[in-house]
């Protein structure tokens, strides 16, 4: 939805509660996308998770294709493709084809995380592409393929990710760290800080500051900062508080220093064991922005003015689908100055 220069979007993780099948979860995502369009949301993104007991969206490009066919004008995208697992060339082909089918409606959000536990990473990464091992190298290659600008000194010069669309997908980087913000700035990409995965406000503030400081000011492309926030709106303050109290995140820290976010102690223990490293984990409150429309508007306004953000994604983790729909409907009714 757009009021003035401020937009609100939805990032949907295709959640399934203990009583729902994967098919039902995907059906809910399709229905939510159609509702989001009718309510005036600007973008609708879907996530990537593997072997998850909770989130069913394992192939965002397939789901994006279907959602584009089921909607008319809302922007549809990935939030995001876990690029470490894939060939940048194949990802570019997929999204160039989507952009050729639906020009101007496709977003390509990319994340550097695994989207699952170590065992699923092993299943996905059966081999390595020679010469393209780091995330940074893959992201650079993806950007070059998307804009059809492979430099002459590149061994892949002359290759195109066909079909070349009239309007290529917009490329975004999602992250939860300062380093991801710096990388986005260096590559002149829009950056989405995923606060629903990392609720440390100090890290978020540092990421935002570094994105701004490291972005080249003499470039044609302006910096574009967004936040993906956990948000719950309900008809009463008490109902919203009850929903929000159910949400916790578990931060797992490996001995190597790498950190991951999961949503249950069981997943944290599985991740630690599968990593082969010593590990610790910490339960943290979800830090959900919650309340009535009036309360949520006040809280979002405080954040967007503090960080000078003109676009946010709402991530609403309510188990019951009808109540999740109601939250997004109420959010769409808020008038933004």
Describe the overall structure.
This protein has two domains: 291 residues, TIM Barrel; 38 residues. Strands 2-3-4-5-6-7-8-13 form an eight-stranded parallel barrel, surrounded by nine helices. The radius of gyration is 19 Å and the shape is globular. By secondary structure, it is α/β, with parallel strands linked by helices. The two termini are 12 Å apart.
Strand and helix map with partners:
Elements: E1 2-3, E2 6-12, H1 22-39, E3 43-46, H2 60-70, E4 75-82, H3 88-101, E5 106-111, H4 118-124, H5 135-146, E6 170-175, H6 178-186, E7 191-194, H7 201-214, E8 225-233, H8 237-245, E9 248-254, E10 259-262, H9 265-275, E11 279-285, E12 289-291, H10 293-307, E13 311-315, H11 321-332
Parallel strand pairs: 2-3, 2-13, 3-4, 4-5, 5-6, 6-7, 7-8, 8-12, 8-13
Antiparallel strand pairs: 1-2, 9-10, 9-11
Helix pairs in contact: 1-11, 3-5, 6-7
End-to-end Cα distance, whole Å, is 12 Å
What's the architecture of the largest domain, going by CATH?
A: Alpha-Beta Barrel
Output the CATH homologous superfamily of the largest domain.
Luciferase-like domain
How many separate helices? 11
Domain unit count: 2
Q: List the secondary-structure elements in sequence, H or E.
A: EEHEHEHEHHEHEHEHEEHEEHEH
Number of strands: 13
Q: What composes the largest sheet?
A: 8 strands, parallel, barrel
Q: Measured on Cα atoms, how large is the radius of gyration?
A: 19 Å
Proportion of helical residues: 25-40%
- CATH class group of the largest domain: Alpha Beta
Overall residue-averaged pLDDT value: 92
């Amino acid at each position: 939805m757009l009021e003035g220069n401020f937009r609100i979007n939805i990032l949907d993780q295709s959640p399934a509660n203990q009583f729902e099948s994967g098919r039902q979860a995907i059906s809910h995502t399709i229905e939510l996308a159609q509702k989001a369009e009718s309510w005036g949301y600007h973008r609708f993104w879907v996530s990537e998770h593997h072997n998850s007991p909770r989130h069913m969206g394992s192939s965002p490009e397939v789901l994006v294709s279907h959602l584009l066919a089921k909607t008319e004008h809302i922007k549809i995208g990935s939030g995001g493709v876990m690029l470490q697992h894939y060939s940048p060339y194949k990802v570019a082909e997929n999204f160039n084809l989507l952009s050729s089918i639906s020009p101007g409606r496709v977003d390509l959000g990319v994340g550097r995380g695994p989207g699952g536990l170590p065992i699923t990473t092993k299943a996905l990464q059966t081999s390595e592409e020679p010469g393209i091992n780091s995330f940074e190298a893959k992201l650079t290659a993806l950007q070059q393929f998307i804009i059809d600008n492979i430099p002459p000194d590149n061994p892949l010069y002359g290759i195109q990710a066909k079909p070349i669309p009239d309007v290529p997908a917009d490329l975004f980087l999602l992250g939860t760290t300062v380093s991801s913000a710096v990388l986005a700035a260096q590559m002149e990409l829009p950056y989405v800080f995923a606060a629903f995965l990392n609720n440390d406000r100090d890290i978020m503030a540092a990421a935002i500051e570094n994105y701004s400081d490291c972005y080249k000011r003499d470039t044609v492309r302006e910096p574009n900062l967004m936040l993906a926030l956990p948000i719950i709106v309900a008809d009463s303050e008490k109902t919203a508080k009850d929903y929000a109290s159910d949400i916790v995140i578990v931060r797992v820290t490996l001995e190597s220093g790498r950190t991951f976010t999961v949503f249950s102690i069981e997943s944290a223990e599985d991740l630690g064991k599968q990593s082969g490293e010593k590990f610790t984990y910490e339960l943290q409150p979800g830090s959900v922005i919650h309340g009535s429309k009036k309360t949520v508007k006040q809280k979002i306004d405080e954040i967007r003015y503090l960080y000078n953000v003109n676009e946010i994604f709402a991530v609403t983790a309510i188990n019951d689908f009808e109540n999740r729909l109601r939250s997004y409907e109420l959010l769409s009714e808020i008038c933004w100055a």
